[in-house]
Design brief:
The chain has 587 residues and is an alpha+beta fold. It is built from 21 helices and 19 strands. Strands 10-9-8-11-12 form a five-stranded mixed sheet, with helices on both faces. Strands 13-14-15-16 form a four-stranded mixed sheet. It is extended and about 135 Å long.
Length: 587
């Protein structure tokens, strides 16, 4: 058989050959026996052999995949072949899961974690030096986990970077003592469970980045792996968010097996996810984001550190705020609110003989730190008792109040004053006009209403209230962005009135930019259109000669008439004689 086979993935499979085999299907006495030709292919599969349509047709079998049964006729009755759910599930899992890769990852993780758990460094290092030449240098390497190894060994790197000027400094001696102390009490590492979510903390300094991978068990976070790296020349000048992204990128490469088999939850107080997914970032961050996209990584805000080891890890990696970094100068309170607070402090300070102001370091100001974390943390994350005080009002007033004005002057003042007290202007004409105008209004409980012929009383509005009514009806919850006249009528239907309502509504809609851009434009002509008979209508004229008429002056007794067929315009002239020259002169 030279023709290749095509599987479910539509890929050609080369046929190795054909082998005939005797097949017995069913259980005696209801059993079918016959020879079948099997095609041999070199393809990994969870099944030893597969029966095709040829075998099923020869068997006259009926297959039910739902019941995992196959029935076929025999000489002694109906034969039956039954499958088992456990076997089918094993075959399905074997075809979908890669055993070799999974076993390799588990064995590597088990070997490392078993070696690190419960043993001191002295038991791991074996100083077996074989005798040889006298002048021989022997190097012993310690391959194990070490938190912040890059930052701890940084003084050594600086000392041996220039061999000519090598000098053992106090920093080197201090780092050496810290390494001995740390190696004498190694931390215990935990083994992650399959499918378990792992948490990652990222920390950066000016010269190094550190990563710790932990798992949570019974509310306690246990470390799994540490990663550290000393930043090179260009990397030290990265922004802080770029350094954090670099730390995540390095951890994904070094801990690839964990990233592939677990969901990694990155806990950070920086907008790392937004920066990596943004299209306007640098090319460097875009490349890192593409490589990190193959893993299942989730980002959550850093609210609280639960394990004490993790707290030490983060605190040690954080740059300390030394007193030389603090500024002590005189500044001007330019902000109005800050100036009010400053005035309140000066007023309160006058009650004391003397006082000093000290800045509390961040690591000691636990109350402010806990309150800041409480704003972004869940209730279960804050284990300590936090006492909250709710202020009903601010310590300072927003503005200094001099006098409160109840209402603004408007067009209703004269009418309300006349209808309530009967007072009229001194001028006779103004008094007459006011009496006529007041007859169209009604005063109810100190509120002025406009009488209407077909509507109920309309409440009169002052200028500020009328502007609010225009905005609410035009663009409010039920606003339809109506035109000027329609807007004015709708306000009247709502029961409000002021004298310039039509003019104010038209001016308000004209000032609205979106209404000018998206308002419908009317294309209907104002008059019915006249159909055009000819594309050039004006050259079409009708001419006629009329006569004889009674003799007029100049012996004129004929009339020449011309009519435009399009505009129906008529021209006429009297003639004494009808000649071609006279007709040409007429036109």
């Amino acid at each position: 058989m030279d023709t290749p086979l095509y599987g479910f993935s539509n890929q050609p499979v080369i046929v190795e050959g054909i082998i005939p085999l005797p097949v017995a299907i069913g259980t005696p006495p209801m059993q079918a026996n016959f020879m079948l030709d099997f095609v041999v292919v070199k393809v990994p599969s969870a099944y030893n052999d597969i029966l095709g349509r040829t075998a099923l047709n020869r068997l006259q079998a009926v297959v039910s995949t739902y019941h995992l049964k196959m029935k076929f006729p025999t000489k002694h009755g109906v034969g039956e072949v039954k499958g088992y759910h456990t076997t089918t599930r094993k075959c399905y899992m074997a075809s979908c899961r890669s055993k070799n890769k999974e076993a390799l990852i588990i064995e590597d993780l088990q070997e490392d974690t078993k070696m690190q758990r419960g043993k001191l460094v002295e038991e791991l290092v074996s100083n077996e030096v074989y005798p040889g030449k006298e002048n021989k240098t022997v190097r012993i390497a310690l391959g194990r986990f070490m938190a912040r190894s890059a930052e701890r060994c940084l003084p050594f790197f600086k000392a041996i970077k220039k061999a000519k000027n090598f000098a053992w400094t106090d920093d080197c001696q201090k780092s050496f003592e810290e390494l001995k102390t740390y190696l004498s009490s190694p931390p215990l590492f935990s083994k992650p469970l399959p499918g378990e979510d792992l948490f990652m903390y990222l920390s950066v300094t000016k010269v190094a980045v550190s990563i710790i991978l932990v798992r949570e068990e019974d509310g306690v976070q246990k470390p799994i792996y540490y990663v550290s790296k000393v930043l090179q020349d260009v990397e030290t000048r990265y922004p802080k968010i770029d350094k954090i992204a670099l730390a995540l990128f390095i951890s994904a490469r070094r801990l690839r097996s964990y990233f592939q088999s677990h969901t990694i939850v990155v806990l950070t107080d920086q907008p790392l996810r937004k920066v990596l997914l943004s299209l306007e970032t640098s090319k460097r961050l875009v490349n890192w984001s593409v490589e990190l996209g193959e893993f299942d990584i989730q980002y959550k805000s850093l609210t609280a550190i639960k394990a004490q080891a993790l707290a030490d890890f983060i605190v040690e990696c954080t740059s300390p705020e030394d007193p030389p970094q603090l500024l002590s100068r005189d500044y001007e309170a330019r902000d109005e609110r800050m100036a009010q607070y400053l005035e309140l402090v000066k007023t309160s300070a006058s009650n004391f003989k003397n006082f000093t102001i000290h800045q509390i370091p961040r690591d000691q100001n636990t109350q402010a730190d806990t309150l800041s974390r409480l704003a972004s943390a869940e209730v279960t994350d804050v284990r300590r008792s936090v006492y909250l005080e709710f202020l009903k009002k601010r310590s300072i007033s927003s503005q200094n109040e001099i006098g409160i004005i109840d209402k603004e002057p408007c067009w209703m003042d004269m009418i309300i004053k006349y209808m309530s007290t009967g007072e009229l202007p001194s001028e006779r004409q103004k008094a007459k006009n006011l009496r006529v105008k007041a007859a169209r209004y009604a005063l109810v409980d100190g509120i002025l209403y406009k009488k209407s012929f077909s509507l109920p009383y309309l409440k009169c509005l002052c200028p500020s209230e009328s502007l609010y009514a225009l905005q609410e009806v035009h663009e409010g919850i039920c606003g339809q962005h109506l035109g000027g006249r329609t807007l004015a009528h709708k306000i009247l239907w709502q029961g409000y009135y002021w004298p310039m309502i039509q003019k104010d509504a038209i001016e308000f809609t004209r000032r609205w930019d979106k209404c000018q851009k998206f308002s419908p434009v009317t294309h209907t002509p104002i008059a019915p259109l006249t159909p055009v008979v000819s594309p050039i209508p004006f050259p079409i004229w009708g001419m006629d000669l009329l006569g004889f008429f009674p003799m007029a002056s100049g012996q004129r007794k004929f009339v020449i008439v011309a009519i435009d067929y399009f505009t129906k315009w008529t021209e006429a002239e009297s003639l004494a004689t009808i000649t071609s020259a006279k007709c040409e002169d007429f036109f």
